[in-house]
Structures are given as C-alpha cells and as structure tokens.
Amino acid sequence: MKIHSALSHHLAWVLLALLTVTAYAKDEPAPVSAKLANVRILATGGTIAGTGATSTTTVGYTAAKVGVEQLIEAVPALKQVANVTGEQVFQIASENMTDEYWLKLAKRVNTLLAQDDVDGIVITHGTDTLEETAYFLNLVVKSHKPVVLVGAMRPSTAMSADGPFNIYNSVVLAASPDSANKGVLVCLNDQINAARDVTKTNTTSLDTFRAPELGFLGYMQSNKPHFYRLPARKHTVDTEFDVSKLEALPKVDIVYGYANVTRTPVDALVAAGAKGIIHAGVGDGSIHNAVKPALIEARQKGVIVVRGSRVGNGIVARNGEANDDELDFVVSDTLNPQKARILLMLALTKTNQTSEIQRMFYTY
Ligand code: SIN
Questions:
Q1: If you take atom 2 of ligand 1, which residue's CA is the nearest one?
Q2: Which residue from 71, 95, 154 has its CB within 8 A of the most atoms of ligand 1, so it is best to mutate?
C-alpha cells in the first residue's frame, strides 16, 4: 500500500514536470496580462532598420531601409504582450540627426502620450546618436508614461540580428507600469539604462550601451523588467523646458581639447553665430593656454562657455582647473560633451544667466 502511494506521488510529479516543460517549450511567451497595454512604436531609422548584402554583413550595410510595419511583423510575439501600432516619424541613419528632427519627434511623443489610448512609446533609433535623442526627450517629454529608445548593432538581415529581441524587450518595458516615472529609458542587450547616464562605449559590440561607473537601472528577463536603481536627476514632467512652440534651438557647438590644439575652431564657431560652446577639455576640463583667450573673448561677446571633459567619467569641478566664477564659465557636472550641448541648448531657450544655467547643470 505504502509502495503504491509512493509510486502515485512520484508519477504525479513526473506528469507535472512534463506539463511544465511543455509550457516553457512553446515558441512564444504566454500573455502577461489579460488587458494589454497600448504601445506605439515610432520608427526613425538606424541599423535596427538596416539591410546588408548577406547574412554575415555586419559592417558596410545600409541603415534605415526597413519600414516600421516590417519591424513589427518580424516579432510576432509582440501581439502577446501589447497592442502594438507603428508609425514612421522619419527614416535616417542617426549620424544625420538634427535639432529639427528632435523637435518633430518630441512634439509627436507629447501629442501621443496625452492620448488616453496610448500607454507607452518605443522609439526605434540608430545607435550612434541614440543617447543624445534619449537625453533630449528626457528633458522635454511631458508625461509620466514610459518612453523607451531601442536600437540594434546588427542590421535586420544579419544572422543573430539583435533588433527583434531588443524590440520585444522594449515593448514589454514600455507596457509595464513599473517603467512609469523613471524618465526616458534605453533598452538594448537585456539592459535598461537611464537616458542621462547612458552612452555608446564600443563601435561594434552588442554590449555597447553602458552607464560607466554610475551603472544601469536594471535587466530585462523572463518577459519583465527588473529595476534596481532610479534616476536621481529631474526629468520629463519635472523639468522647466517646453518645446511645444519651438521651431528651432539655439546654436551650440562642441570644441575638443588635445595636445597642440589651436584657437581656430572656437573663433570659427563664434564667427558662425554660436550662442554656446561646450569645451570638451582634457582631464578635469582643463583648457590649453592657446584656447583659453578665445573662450574668454567668446564669453565677452555673450557666448555661453561650458567647461566639460573628454574623459567620459567624473564631475568637472567648478573653480578647479579654471576660475569659473571669474571667467563666468559654466561647468558640465558629469554630462558628456554631446549631452551638455543638449542641456545648454534647452537652457538657452529660458535664460542667458550663467548662474541659472549652472543651476540647471546641477539639476538635470
Ligand atoms: C545609426 O546610428 O543610424 C547607424 C548605426 C546604428 O544604428 O548602429
């Protein structure tokens, strides 16, 4: 009797195990919610929409070829995690990004997020300037709803293309209530990053998006986001920036510091009408003696000078490698030069006061 009971118990476990294996062996994940979120995919181009000559072409392909409907069709599992609709906002390789494209995208995002029938947005984007678009939107989107930027390092035609799974994860992320109020997110390679801190760190590797030293926010795993950190700086609804009526942004450019540098780029940019210059200095934002007089003269002409660093990590210390109070310069805090440019452009839509602009660099 005892043996009979032990056998039935054992058989029950074998049956349960078999059923579980069958359930997990299905090609597509089970629906995560009976009432699916409405996620709009805004496509803008990039490698994620790129095509190559062969399945092994991972360099020398053409970005921005495949349309949004094809991107969605390539991931049938999307239907199980959200009600997905697509829209082609523009179709470019992201090295050709402009302030005008950003304004167009930001206005569209704000219009959509104001609608009750949109719960979250995924933006497919080239990886080259993805971090910049993400930070721009992080400062100008006026909604708590999730906005996720996604790209791919391999074109859609490549063997083991990373785009489809990145899109799948991003839609899951945008559909999740856990993603609300966290600013604009970046999702590639199973990692969730904050727009302010993320940067592209490798020219071709799939694991290129990192927030060096500060760290990413969480992982995508088993069809859901797992968050471990939150963005500390203000974003989206808590910023003072409003692009709804803007047709253009103030001209801000970047000059790079290096050995033997001359003042020529600074002078040329001021002559071309720059309203702000980000100096990507060496070390803790140090400026070559050959360039400093050009920046001082630029400031005297009304140009805002931000002392940044080409290093990639760390705080540029105010009044450290230059007397910023005396020179009336601003420091970039931890923003890399390309993101400092974005914040300065938006700051200049509100004020020309360096004390106010410095406050913004310590706030966002
Ligand atoms: C681009 O940024 O459009 C090309 C490169 C990429 O998406 O990886």
A1: 126
A2: 95
Q: Indicate the length of the chain as a whole number.
A: 364
What CA–CA distances, in Å, run from 54 to 61, 154, 311?
9, 12, 37
Encode pLDDT of 119-156 as tens digits: 999 999 999 999 999 999 999 999 999 999 999 999 99
Distance 166 CA to ligand 1 centre (A): 14
Q: What value does the mean pLDDT of the chain take?
A: 93
Predicted TM-score (pTM) of this structure: 0.91
Q: Which of 350, 302, 294, 299 is nearest to 324 (CA)?
A: 299
Residue bearing the CA closest to ligand 1, atom 1:
126
Q: Ligand 1 test: best mutation among 125, 128, 186, most atoms within 8 Å of CB?
A: 128
Annotated active-site residue 201? The verdict is: no
CB 193 within 8 A of CB 183: no
Residues paired with 194 in a beta bridge: 185
The whole-angstrom distance between residue 2's C-alpha and the CA centroid of its chain comes to 63
Neighbour tally for 276: CB within 10 Å: 26
- List the structure tokens of 10: 């054992």
Q: Which residues pair with 185 in a beta bridge?
A: 148, 194
Q: Which residue is catalytic, options 47, 127, 157, 199?
A: 47
Helix (H) / strand (E) element for 45: namely: strand 37-45
Angle at 101 between CA 169 and CA 176, to 5 degrees: 25
Per-residue pLDDT at 219 exceeds 90: yes
Annotate 170-209 with three-state secondary structure.
HHHHHHCHHHCCCCCEEEECCEEEECCCCEECCCCCCCCE
Q: How far is the CA of 300 from the centre of ligand 1 (A)?
A: 39
Which atom of ligand 1 is nearest to 94's Cα? 3
Q: 347, 133, 354, 132: which is closest to 242 by C-alpha?
A: 347
Domains and CATH numbers, the chain: 38-238 (3.40.50.1170), 252-363 (3.40.50.40)
Q: How many CB atoms lie within 10 A of CB 204?
A: 9
- Ligand 1 atom closest to the Cα of residue 95 is 2
* Residue found by looking up tokens 């409405």 in the block: 38
Q: Which helix (H) or strand (E) holds 113?
A: helix 99-113
